[in-house]
Design brief:
Elements (H helix, E strand, L loop, with lengths): L7 E3 L5 E5 L2 E2 H21 L2 H7 L4 H29 L3 H14 L9 H28 L6 H29 L4 H7 L1 H14 L21 H14 L6 H9 L7 H26 L1 H21 L3 H28 L6 H29 L4 H26 L8
Antiparallel strand pairs: 1-2, 2-3
Helix pairs in contact: 1-6, 1-8, 3-5, 3-14, 4-5, 4-8, 5-14, 6-11, 6-13, 9-14, 9-15, 11-12, 11-13, 12-13, 12-15, 14-15
């Protein structure tokens, strides 16, 4: 007899799936994996800007390291997405990708120069490039037709829950071992390995029927709306540089090093609170409205980061930054999955993630140069302007969509 707390539903491919705490099994355990992995990566990320400064890195070098690592590895997001569509499997790419992060992250504890950081960071981000599109495709394929927003929202919430615990652990370790950043990197290995175990043993493959597998793919296989949205995303991301500069700004205005992870924790806490409600809201009122709101909010927040020298205002801005994240990150992926054929979802999501990652390089270099050669306000004013332009374009995108029927493919 079936447990009354576990309901049976149908995913979009027609298979019966059990719910755990109201969520599809795969959605729950992929979220668990992301929670553990992000705990490890955010233990590192929350202190990496400060660690790089102790190694003699400039703001431009710091931005370049983040941009190169994310952008170059992002090519793999498109390739892994296409390959997962081709063979009809997502889980092998996820295992390989999460293994990269689990195994390589502790190596930060032995680096001695910014170049060493770049090398390890780049190779570790290759793992993210391998796993991201297949993971997003599995989330979409494991969701019901009307629950994609909620599913991506839950995943984002779990991701950011790890981003809460990670900085907290980093803060605790630095409180016990002041200034010993390398201890943090070593302890980060534990949640990373637990995340890998979760994906291996608890996530099931969302298999595709043989006749539904991807054949030859061309640019015409995607809709005009899909490409327009990619263009808008490019403009927004060009002003969305690495978050490391936000942490450096906090340090510049007097926040003590040990409390930098706590500042980052505030951002992630708010994002966790609102990611699932934002996803559910997007299922009801449409993704575009939430994304427009998120872009406008980002524009206001970055203007505030440029303007303020107050620690109190800075804390408020980090909280609002979490709200922006909840309203856009998962919602944009849900919108992309709406705009493409389910057989090509891995490829389409891979191209989207690839574009975002590659654009981070010029965005971060521009922001770093503005920070080093003008002042600590200029990169944030620049990001604010780019977000405002993207919001206006997204508004036009929404209005056009109301007057024309949505097409999934360009054929």
């Amino acid at each position: 007899m079936e447990d009354k707390n576990q309901k049976t539903i149908f995913s979009e491919n027609g298979r019966k799936v059990k719910k755990i705490l109201g969520l599809e099994r795969n959605i729950f355990f992929v979220g668990t994996t992301s929670f553990l992995t992000d705990t490890a990566t955010k233990m590192i990320y929350a202190i990496m800007p400060l660690f790089l400064m102790t190694l003699g890195a400039t703001k431009t070098e710091l931005s370049l390291i983040e941009g190169l690592a994310e952008s170059t590895a992002s090519v793999l997001k498109a390739l892994s997405g296409w390959w997962s569509d081709k063979i009809g499997k997502n889980k092998p790419f996820m295992i390989i990708g999460y293994a990269f992060t689990a195994i390589l992250s502790p190596l930060f504890s032995i680096v001695t120069s910014p170049l060493h950081v770049l090398i390890v960071r780049f190779i570790e981000r290759v793992g993210k490039g391998i796993r991201t599109a297949p993971r997003d495709s599995l989330i979409a394929g494991s969701s019901g037709d009307n629950t994609k927003g909620r599913s991506f929202g839950f995943h984002k919430a779990m991701d950011n829950s790890g981003a809460i615990l990670g900085p907290l652990l980093a803060f605790g370790i630095l409180s016990i071992f002041p200034g010993d950043y390398r201890k943090v990197f070593m302890f980060a290995a534990i949640p990373g390995l637990l995340g890998l175990i979760s994906i291996i043993f608890f996530v099931k493959e969302a298999k595709k029927e043989q006749e539904g597998l991807l054949g030859r793919i061309t640019l015409k296989d995607f809709s005009v709306k899909y490409y327009i949205f990619l263009g808008i995303t490019f403009i927004f991301t060009l002003g969305n540089s690495t978050d490391a500069l936000l942490l450096i700004k906090a340090s510049d205005i007097g926040v003590k090093d040990a409390f930098i992870p706590i500042i980052y924790l505030i951002f992630n806490s708010v994002s966790v609170m609102f990611s699932v409600p934002a996803g559910i809201l997007s299922d009801k009122i449409g993704r575009e409205k939430l994304i427009i709101f998120g872009y406008l909010l980002y524009s206001s927040i970055y203007f505030g980061f440029g303007k303020t020298n107050s620690q109190g205002v800075l804390i408020l801005l980090f909280a609002l930054y979490g709200l922006y994240s909840a309203a856009t990150d998962g919602i944009q992926k849900a919108l992309v999955s709406d705009l493409i054929d389910k057989r090509k979802r891995g490829t389409g999501l891979g191209l989207y993630n690839c574009l975002v990652g590659i654009t981070l390089l010029p965005a971060s270099v521009i922001a770093g140069l503005l920070y080093d050669h003008i002042n600590n306000r200029a990169p944030f004013y620049y990001g604010s302007i780019m977000a405002l332009v993207a919001a206006l374009l997204m508004l036009l995108f929404y209005w056009k969509g109301k007057t024309k029927p949505n097409q999934i493919s360009g054929n």
